[in-house]
Write a structure and sequence with these properties.
The complex is a heterodimer of chains A (269) and B (293). With 269 residues, chain A is α/β, with parallel strands linked by helices. Chain A has a single domain, classed as 2-enoyl-CoA Hydratase, Chain A, domain 1 (Alpha-Beta Complex), CATH 3.90.226. Chain A is built from twelve helices and nine strands. In chain A, strands 1, 2, 3, 4, 5, 6, 7 and 8 form an eight-stranded mixed β-sheet that branches. In chain A, a hairpin with a 2-residue loop joins strand 2 and strand 3. In chain A, helix 2 crosses helix 11, helix 4 runs parallel beside helix 6 and helix 8 crosses helix 9. By secondary structure, chain B is of the alpha/beta class. Chain B has one domain: 2-enoyl-CoA Hydratase, Chain A, domain 1 (Alpha-Beta Complex). Chain B is built from ten helices and ten strands. Chain B has a seven-stranded mixed β-sheet, with helices on both faces. A two-stranded antiparallel sheet of chain B has the order 1-2. In chain B, strand 7, helix 6 and strand 8 form a beta-alpha-beta unit. The N terminus of chain B is likely disordered. Classes of the chains: A alpha/beta (269), B alpha/beta (293). Chains A and B meet through helix 5, helix 6, helix 7, helix 8 and helix 12 of A and helix 1, strand 4, helix 5, helix 6 and helix 7 of B.
Chain lengths: 269, 293
């Protein structure tokens, strides 16, 4: 497959048939049980969580829920979580830590939901809390960006030991549309923004943020769900094998440094 | 095509009306202060004498990092960390270097965050102060690194951290690198927290976006200045999503207090005393624990 531009990838991942976390789970995990709620306010349909087996190993799975159609997207709020979604994720991550299960996060969101309720219940705090607590979670965390990795809403499931991206997935500080709107006051320049933002898996690998690129079948993940799921499974098994060998203290030290080293600045006298 | 044309015409009209509105009040802007919250107009001299607080409604206006430090720390006690750090251009965003150079010229700062060590009524602490004049103190590589180093130094020296936050969010011009600063700074807070050390966050105008969704939400104690704008998403973004106008006090310090997101609202005149007392109470507790072990 010849390399697609960022814009072409954005168009490709918006394909309605692109697999979602609900498609991947039965293809990757067995005996999956979904768990609901943050135990404080509500169950957020935009984030799914549960436990299952990867091979014969128990794992906790957390991820954004996109839908294939309007009906599904209404239920999952187009994968834009409220604070209770992030709090559910954190609750299940803590549970995973307790039972020494690895956490596997699937990232696919345009961003955290922007609304009155989200502000009232502390959207900023909910995301911040996840960034802080995942950083010191005493169990391996693996994140896979399967489609759109948008902003803090994505990063809240992205503090991990290894980050992989599907070949056509993107990961960005804000959607190209938002970028154009803020920096050029013109959201019609979405395509131009996508071109300069450096959001593809290769770009992110170049920055040292993405650790592995998972290949998609020719034409994209939507053309063959099963093959895509197999490729993801292969990466997860490899990654788990690498991470399981590490002592917890080493694991946390490398996780801290993975993010600690990111930044481009100079110091002059 | 036709729709696009209408959009362009409409947006131009909006810009013009906004400018006209501004034009009306902007007579001699350096002599007068018009409160953005209550629209009250006072002489700049009087406003400055009042520590840049609106006498009519109590809105605490933005002040520079230098002014903040002067108002807060013991005279001559501030030692700055990493004063010579400057951003590179990781995504090669057009004219980013030029923008930075212009901002340095205009503000005398190298970026939107000043960090250092100081004492407040003899209580030693590490201080982080954001200055919204520099690109709305958006958080990119420099802010992320300086804040992280400040927390790391505080952890090593067992010092509390006091952070005066003000930010428009992540520095868009640095792309994904700026998003990662949220994780990096939050990680540094986690280590400071795990060491059992105190972190006081003070929300000043405005604290929003990626800064709100990282270290600015993680204080053991969160204080806000009265009437300041604090929140995650931009007001216009939310209004666009829900298609209705939001109440005026939405995302104010008072709104956040009411919804359980902040511990207290403290006026500028009481800030130094309040922080010093909180630092003292915690230092007694920490040394008390130290003696036991």
């Amino acid at each position: 497959m010849t390399a697609l531009t960022a814009w072409e990838r954005l168009e490709l991942i918006r394909n309605k048939e692109r697999p979602t976390i609900r498609d991947y789970i039965p293809l990757i995990f067995s005996e999956f049980y979904e768990m609901h709620g943050d135990r404080t306010y509500a169950d957020d349909g935009a984030i799914l969580g549960g436990i299952g087996l990867l091979g014969n190993r128990p794992v906790t799975v957390i991820g954004h829920v996109k839908g294939h159609d309007l009906e599904e997207n209404k239920k999952s709020n187009f994968a834009m979580p409220h604070p209770e979604g992030y709090r559910k994720a954190l609750r299940l991550a803590r549970q995973a830590e307790k039972f020494k299960r690895p956490v596997i996060c699937f990232i696919d969101t345009s961003g955290a939901f922007c609304g009155i309720g989200a502000e009232e219940r502390g959207q900023g705090e909910a995301i911040a809390r996840n960034l802080m607590e995942f950083m010191t979670l005493k169990t391996p965390v693996i994140s896979v960006v399967t489609g759109e990795g948008g902003s803090g809403g994505a990063l809240a499931l992205g503090v991990c030991d290894e980050l992989a991206m599907l070949e056509n997935a993107v990961y960005s500080v804000i959607s190209p549309r938002g970028f154009a709107s803020i920096l050029w006051k013109d959201d019609t320049k979405e395509k131009e923004a996508a071109g300069i933002m450096k959001i593809t898996a290769e770009d992110l690998q170049g920055f040292g943020i993405c650790d592995a690129i998972i290949r998609e079948p020719a034409g994209g993940a939507h053309t063959n769900h099963r093959q895509t799921a197999e490729n993801i499974t292969e990466f997860l098994l490899d990654s788990l094998q690498r991470l399981s060998k590490k002592e917890v203290a080493n694991l946390l030290e490398s996780r801290y440094n993975k993010f600690r080293k990111i930044g481009t600045f100079s110091e002059f006298e | 095509m036709l729709e696009d044309l209408f959009k362009t015409v409409k947006s131009r009209m909006n810009i013009e009306t906004a400018e006209n509105k501004k034009g009306k009040v902007n007579i001699p802007s350096d002599l007068l202060f018009k409160c953005p919250r209550c629209q009250n107009v006072v002489f700049m001299e009087e406003f400055e004498r009042n520590k840049k607080v609106c006498a009519a409604c109590g809105y605490h206006a933005r002040i520079s990092a230098r002014e903040r430090i002067e108002l807060t720390v013991d005279k001559g006690s501030f030692t700055e960390y990493d004063p010579h750090m400057q951003s590179c251009n990781p995504i090669e965003f057009p004219d980013y270097e030029k923008k930075i150079a212009a901002m340095r010229e205009a503000t005398g700062l190298n970026d939107g965050v000043v960090t250092g060590e100081c004492s407040i009524r003899s209580q030693k602490c590490v201080m982080i102060v954001m200055d919204s004049r520099f690109m709305m103190s958006s958080m990119g590589s420099v802010a992320g690194e300086k804040i992280t180093r400040a927390f790391e130094r505080a952890t090593r020296q067992a010092l509390p951290v006091v952070a005066f936050t003000a930010s428009g969010g992540a520095r868009m011009q640095e792309g994904i690198i700026s998003l990662m600063q949220m994780a990096k700074t939050s990680g540094a807070v986690a280590r400071h927290n795990d060491a059992g050390l105190l972190y006081i966050t003070v929300w000043t105008d405005p604290t929003t976006g990626g800064v709100m969704a990282s270290f600015a939400s993680l204080g053991d104690i969160i204080i806000a200045e009265p009437k300041v704008l604090v929140g995650f998403a931009g007001r216009r973004v939310i209004e666009g999503t829900i298609r209705q106008r939001l109440p005026d006090d939405f995302q104010s310090a008072e709104f956040m207090l009411q919804h359980g997101q902040a511990d207290m609202i403290v006026s500028r005149t009481e800030m130094r005393r309040t922080i010093a007392n909180l630092l003292r109470i915690h230092s007694q507790q920490q040394s008390g624990e130290g003696q036991e072990s």
